[in-house]
Design goal:
- GO terms for molecular function: 2 iron, 2 sulfur cluster binding; flavin adenine dinucleotide binding; metal ion binding; oxidoreductase activity.
- Helix content is 18%, strand content 34%.
- It is of the alpha/beta class.
- It folds into three domains: 105 residues, Elongation Factor Tu (Ef-tu), domain 3, CATH 2.40.30; 141 residues, 3-Layer(aba) Sandwich (Rossmann fold); 90 residues, Beta-grasp domain (Ubiquitin-like (UB roll)), CATH 3.10.20.30.
- Strands 1, 2, 3, 4, 5, 6 and 7 form a seven-stranded antiparallel β-sheet that branches. A five-stranded parallel β-sheet has the order 10-9-8-11-12, sandwiched between helices.
- A hairpin with a 2-residue loop joins β4 and β5.
- The protein is globular.
- The two termini are 17 Å apart.
Length: 374
């Protein structure tokens, strides 16, 4: 076992053997790991979570996060991985590691999760683009297995049919659970017989989906399927998430029921900031990170705390800058801030003073933070 400070937290890594490797499309592949009996407890996970892989690429150590496609009841760790460029780290991972090799794999993490409600009648809608299908596949398998009263709708976008991953797995689920699962495929760079399924998943497409697919509800003649939606799952690139999350919200889904997972750095807000704050100049900021104490001054409180620290070249942990990933989670030890959006922290964590630096505006002249959470 190996420990390492990663993204501000102490993360546990273990050597796991690759049990299966499969090329899915020309730029995606899957890895499945063998979990020894003595590590079963460490690798328990919830649907929608991810693990980090630590490996060598071009003589450098790389740590990347990959979502699991496996569901907890399958008792295995299976990952879907996209090769972004021929010379990138994931390309090296695909070329250099094979069945029987060992990799350092972190214990599962992430909060793109749902509370299981096996005794309730629920409607859940998923939107995915490309490799963003991975955690949603985990969710859908888990829900279909554990919640006999829940119905699911999946809208899955890809550039073309050649780029569509996990088609067989998804179609098998649809055949096995046809009364509770409907899947619709969309292509942005391939003409379709029905023009409805051509184009990107965005706010315009959502309006069409609501009006043409999620309209008549056989279980309740006085309402639509969209009216019955309990939760929405979205996974893909930042612009897609922003577009669909806002569209879902404007079509009546509460923000707390819109869950999203980001697969790349995204510097924009998911939801528009609707609040204004009194200007504070020369904010004194002290913070602890990796055991060291730092002090600096923020010119004003017009920008979020994380963004200002990055401008000043401090190596603070972050990934998305959008309040989704939780990498910049820290404890507010002194002062007052406004947390603009929060897709990550629990209510109990907020009550204990935890904040997300990327979503926090200073509201007092002095601020003290602690990024060392463990």
């Amino acid at each position: 076992m190996e420990q390492q400070i990663y993204k501000g937290k102490l993360t546990q890594f273990h050597w796991l053997k690759i049990a299966k490797k499969e090329e899915l499309t020309k730029n995606t592949f899957s890895l499945e790991f063998e979990i020894p009996e003595n590590l079963k407890e460490e690798f328990r996970f919830e649907a929608g979570q991810f693990v980090s892989l630590k490996f060598q690429s071009h003589d450098k150590e790389v740590i990347n996060d990959y979502s699991m496609t496996s569901a907890p009841y399958e008792k295995k760790i299976a990952l879907g991985i996209k090769i972004n460029s021929p010379d990138g780290a994931t390309s090296e991972l695909f070329k250099n590691y094979h069945v029987g090799d060992e990799l350092l794999v972190s214990e599962p993490g992430g909060r793109f999760t749902l509370i299981s409600k096996p005794h309730e009648f629920r409607t859940i809608v998923g939107f995915a683009a490309g490799i963003g299908i991975t955690p949603i596949l985990s969710h859908f398998k888990n829900i279909l297995h554990n919640e006999p009263r829940t119905r699911l709708f999946l809208f899955f976008g890809n550039k073309s049919s050649e780029d569509l991953i996990y088609r067989d797995a998804l179609d098998n689920l649809a055949r096995a659970y046809g009364d509770r699962l409907q899947i619709f495929y969309f292509y942005s760079q391939e003409k379709t017989a029905n023009s409805f399924f051509y184009g990107r998943l965005d706010e315009k497409k959502l309006s069409l989906i609501i009006n043409q697919i999620l309209h008549l509800d056989d279980t309740d003649e006085e309402s639509t399927i969209w009216d019955a939606v309990d939760d929405v799952l979205i996974c893909g690139k930042g612009e897609m998430i922003k577009s669909l999350a806002n569209a879902c919200y404007h079509h009546g889904i509460p923000k707390k029921n819109i869950h999203f997972e980001l697969f790349e750095e995204f510097n924009d807000d998911i939801y528009p900031v609707e609040k204004e704050f009194p200007l504070i100049e020369n904010v004194e900021l002290a913070f602890k990170m990796l055991g060291k104490e730092y002090k600096t001054e923020l010119p004003t409180n017009e920008e979020r705390i994380l963004q200002q620290l990055l401008i000043q070249k401090f190596q603070v942990p972050y990934s998305c800058k959008s309040g989704i990933c939780g990498s910049c989670e820290c404890i507010l030890e002194e002062g007052e801030v406004e947390l603009l959006e929060n897709e990550y922290l629990t209510e109990s964590e907020e009550e204990k003073g935890h904040i997300l630096a990327c979503m926090s505006i200073a509201k007092s002249k002095k601020i003290k933070l602690n990024f060392d959470l463990s």
